[in-house]
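Batch 3, record 17
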Amino acid sequence: MGRLHAEEMILNMGPQHPSTHGVLRLKLTTDGEIVSKIEPVIGYLHRSFEKHAENLEYQMVTPFTGRCDYLAAMGSEHGYAMAVEKMMGIELPERVEYLRVVFAELQRIASHLVAVGTFGLDVGAITPFIYCFRERELILDLFEMASGARLLYNYIWIGGLAHDVPPGFVEKTYEFLDAFDKRVAEYNQILTGNKIFIERAADIGVMTPEVAINYGVTGPSLRASGVNIDIRKTQPYSIYDRFDFEIPLGEGLQGTVGDSWDRYYVRVLEMLESAKIIRQALDQLPVEGDVKSAIPKRIRPPKGEVYFRSENPRGELGYYIVSNGKNVPLRVKMRSPAFSNLSVINEIGQGFMISDVIAILGSLDIVLGEIDR
Amino acid sequence: MTEQEIYASLSSKFGDQVVEFIEEETLNPTVVVEASAIADICNYIKDTETLQFDSLMNLAGHDPDGESDLNVIYHLHSTELDHYITLKTFTPRDDGSVASVANIYRTADWHEREAYDLFGIKFSGHPDLKRILMEDDWEGFPLKKDYVPAEFYRGMRIEKVK
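Prediction for the assembled complex:
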């Protein structure tokens, strides 16, 4: 029996659509239910971060970085602070480094919880989403304890932290970690091995390593394709070389290496690794140390430029900063991971059904705030 | 390979089209090349056995002062051999163009559109060069240092940035 050919139709998904995780428009060219071309249209959340940065002093840019990737504000602040510190050659107190790692990894767990939960939501599983947000609340409580804010922190400053963590913070973090491993087992029971979920995610949107690298895909989405690149290991920054942790890779347990299910499962495993890092960092956390002692009075990096990259929950977050020796940067370019991760969707999504495109999009874990900046 | 060796390899292959090597004043050693040669150079460094730069980490436009040439900066990484290099090229402010590398590194597709969108840098040979972050009918290129915003956009007043 020959295949029935329907007329090609352009279908607009978004900009207002619950599955697009923000304000994203996908222009789908469809042949019946089969998608033959996906053209993402972005820019709806463009808030001129780079233009703003050229008019603000270095320390004033920090809050803006958090507003780009609002699900991983600590990670964005951390990357920006490290880039400027590298230009200025600032040595940080040990306590600051350890606390920063704790916050960056807590943020990674919180961000992956949203990714995992909303991916389940996209393909019809509502309960895991509630579970994930239950744990995320606990992390946000910890952030609130330290910085006073739950979403946008302005906590990691150039040269240090806004202030030290309050008494009881370390104990509460241990408490969270003790409970967390069991909670991940719950997600595995309810979502990871769920037959319906596997049907929806396995073998969908397979990304080969060559495609992933060529498109600049980074982070868990790249590692799900079996490529062992994590900047925390390959080019360690901060103090990540002191910790013992594994890099989970996609193995194609339910289908093909690099499918949507792998991208999901790599994130689940990464949360456990992050918990391991946090535990080690808290064990080694120096008691003494002024977290503000290295904050410079005047932030004027010497003339020059730097490209500094760090591993954000979504992948490689790079800052390209050009200084002309003044207190205002000449250029700040944020290389946002989700920007490149989204661009691959046309390559991996062709030939699938419209509902599969939703699954692929969910598995890529995009945040439109940092795509549009 | 060190950046110095990569520079030596490039300059012996491409001669005059490789302009200079900047080590001071930058934390990422940079090879400055001619805009017309950038695609050939990227092809070469991607396919050569000893270089294997398969990943374009970042592509950024830059306007140094509002008068001189616009810059395009390429940050490259070899995932196989684990070495890094930064390439920089330059183009006249208004009517110049840079050879597109979007067919060599697919990640450059959107990044070049962004550089075009914000700086007005034209990339010859790009498959679909159009605005990406700004509105399609926006006037001017906002990150150029001499950019003056229009007074109105579709009847809405544009607030002046200091």
